[in-house]
Each structure stands twice: as C-alpha cells, then as structure tokens.
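Supplementary Note 3. Input sequence used for the single-chain structure prediction.
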Amino acid sequence: MRTVDDWLASEETGEAFSHCVRCRLPLVEIAEPWLVNKEIMGGECVLEYAVCQPCRDAVTAEFSEESKKSVRDFLEKEIDWDERLMEFMASHDATDRFESCIACLTPRRVLEGYGLSALFDSGGKLVLGPLPLLICLPCVGKMTASLSDASRSVWRRFLEKNFDGPPGDAGFPGML
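The predicted structure, written as discrete structure tokens, is reproduced below.
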C-alpha cells in the first residue's frame, strides 16, 4: 500500500520534489510554501510538478478574474467542504484522501484519470487542511469549462515553458 509520501513523490525519481518547476530554486531555500500537483491517466503519471507559492501567485495573477471566479464557484458549490473536512479529520491516514474524488466521490479505482494536489509548508511538511486531495478529470473538466481563452493561454504557456512535449490544455489546473 502506498504511503502519502509515495503518492506525492516524483514518479520520475521516486524522491520528494526538491525544486520549483518555474523558478528552479530549491524549495526548502525559498522559505515559502509550495504545491505538488500530479495528473494520472490510465494509471500513469503524465504530468507532475512542484511550484513555490511566489511562482504560483505570479502565474495565477495572469488568469482572468472571470476564470478565477468560475473555479471558486465550482469549489464552493460542488464540494461539501464541511463534510469532506470532517471525513479528513476522522481519518488518521492522509492517503484516505486519495481514495475518491473530492467533488463527486467517484472511487479512484474506477477513474480513468485524476489529479492530485498537496500543499507543503516552507520546511517541507505536508499541510493537512483542504489539501491534499484527489479530483477526477470529469470534475476538473467541469471546473475549467468556463475558463477564458486568455486564461487557457496562460496555462498553455506555463506548460510550454516548463515541460517537454507538445503544448495543450493537458494538466491538472492546480494553480487556480
């Protein structure tokens, strides 16, 4: 059975993420929290990265206000945060959070794809709150359906600048 450290480690290296994907600085030297985001398709990790809070803020500042509002609306309306947080607090194992989608509650074992997102403090300790979480790709699709073209362009530029491979809309929008 995978531990939370296994789930949130780089699939490529098997180690914890050490550098921000955008600024390339060592995460523990930045003295800021950071996010780890992973996208899994068909059991294979197709995108993974850690991004420090300053870099995340710089990228999300480029998203349109309408896009940010659309994502906030989804998070507020489609997720019963009180119920989810009570479930999270009742569990002593953070890996339980990866058993089903945070929004629709579809079990991970039947999902074709999903995203994982987790927050770490400036010292590298996992922060337990609304994150870590798993969200299925259909729910990501609902969450991002109303993103503006300008915001989609910001996301594509982020992918193009920081990852090898063809550009596109692939990727869990954990920056929002």
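Strands lie at 34-41, 44-52, 113-120, 126-127, 133-136. The chain is about 35% helix and 20% strand.
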